[in-house]
Design goal:
The structure holds three protein chains of three kinds. Chain B is an alpha/beta fold. Helices cover 54% and strands 12% of the residues of chain B. The longest helix of chain B is centred in the last third of the chain and has 34 residues. By secondary structure, chain C is mostly helical. Chain C contains six helices and no strands. The chains are: A mainly alpha, B alpha/beta, C mainly alpha.
Amino acid sequence: MVDFRRDIPLAITFIIGVIAVLDYYTTIPIFINTFTVIKNWGVVLQAFALGLGAVNLLRVHGRRISERRDDWYFSAVLLAMMFIFIIVGLITGQYESGATYNWLYNAIYLPLGSTMYSSLAFYMAYGAYKVLRARTFEAALLFTTAVLVIIGNTPIFPAMFPGFFHIREWIFGPIVGGAYRGIRIGVGIGAVVLGIRTLIGLETGYLGRR
Amino acid sequence: MDVPREVIMALVLISMIIPALNPLGLPLMVGDMSRAWYRTVDELPEGSVILFDIAFGSGGYPSLGPGTIAAFHQMFEKGHKIIMMATDLEGSMMYPLIMDSVKPEQNYGAVYGEDWVFFGYIAGGQTAMAGILGDIRALVSTDYQGNDIDSLAVMDGVNGADDFDLVASITTSGDIAEGWVYQGYSQYNRPVIGGCLSMMTTSIKPYYDTGQLLGLMDGIKGAADLEFLTKHPGDAIVSSDILSFSQTLVLIFIAVGNIAYWIQKGGNS
Amino acid sequence: MVSTDPQIWIAAFLTLAATSYAFRDNKVFKFAENIFIGVAAGHLVVMGVKNIRDYGWAHLAQGEIIYAVVFLLGILLYTRYHKEYYWLYRYPIAFLVGNGIGISIRAAIHSDFTVQIAQTASPLIASDAMGTINNIILFIGVVTALSHFIFTYEGMHQGVLGYAPKVGRWMILLALGASFGNTVMTRFGMYQGRVVFLLREWLQII
């Protein structure tokens, strides 16, 4: 008896994954042509998935507004801005290349996006003061390269003594290169193993819990 | 000794404002990774076709925007054809900002549709990359403004990976940087160069060390290097002065924090 | 001379509002934060609809009827909000997972494994002494860092063998320090862009 809730999705994952791998390792036209269509479908499906975030926000913040919870008016602002962008983007038929959309983007999204992500600079400084301490031998190792790299990255120091820049470049050579290559190989093995386990149905987390 | 958080925040802000008002014009030392990027593009014969992914948005623009501008200056100057796309949702919003600075028509006599084209944002990450490298026309039929790509001269004879002489991407996402190595280098055997935020450089560097990336633009530092090498000074070189002040302040914080810790530890023992 | 462009004023206000959180949480920041989430979600929808039109609808309009299937799958994604038929969303998710894994693992084996190991197994002796020393440090770094992540063999972390993961841990810590140093530069490099915007575009004093 086929379980449509579980067996069919697992079969879809397996078949699509295997076609992708066969497209790589063989030159058989049927796999290449089929996978070309699968790739295009993947793009379209990902585009459909982009709307899920908006639907989630609509559900969560719509409820907050209807129940008049604390600071509900912030939720109203959030949804209003979401609809303004959607309407301006879609109504003109020009999407993101429309002049009004561009104006709104540069006035609102660009400054907020830039500032939100970059404000961590302040916490980096605070963290450097409060946490980055050479308490133990191992902490001292991290501390040493951190300080040397910051010095090498700060143009005023290499301008006074070019050796600081060469030390920084050297750290990025064998030290960073060696350790991160080891990590990269480990991560690569892990990703491939997890991928194979998912394709053959041993990992089913993506199906959700219900 | 405990300095209040607000004081540290205010000092950081001041350390950025002072050098912005009074630039020092410090000399720049160019790193190997940026030099390799520059050399790779420079050694391409004139008229080479480059696939370029603008894979960052507003968050990455201050760090990666200047580097992208410098990269395009070099590519247009050398007379290369550029097929642009975006795997970041905001990439298509970065495109006009970047082109407003590069001004390819004005500075290099380049013509849209003949010397470059922009496909806009394509969803799917690695799926989009594999789609473009595999068979462009099976996926894309119009550019970002809705023009039929077959009506654009720059697309003549460009169908997939074999027609690209170089694949370049500048991104804030580790998955995208990795993805271009996977798809561009491993899957389709193309020469690839990449740019990323400095904080990603350590994890992306194994690809550069092993020759899978022929050049690596290391965030704002790499951008300043590229501005210097291409002789198009811009915001990244301006930022060098600001970084000198603000990072020196961080070093002072580290020193003060550690001295206070060791004094306190000595007192306790 | 301060800018008179309303776009610049809005951008400047939102920059300052978003920065204000660094000093203390406040209502102005919350206002900016909610605007940000709203516009980001709105932009997602706009770009999603455009992609569906350009890469899905365009094929369907040309008579490729098979593309109707992907539209059906796309709509099924939204059944996850339905109490009874929520499980139908697993079909498109299964497609995306299979496609994503298939596309990445086939190349990951080459990029993250074969090439990395082949390069590490290359000769250590370089044309100059410094090059040879660097090659040896790099080789030790790769092997010991990898050994640090071997947890299935207990002996790896005991006795003489135990030195390898210990050295690996030191190498990783040194590399993480470099990573921290570069993260500081990234964040400052980002924020300086906003400072330059405020001084140049808004206040127009540089």
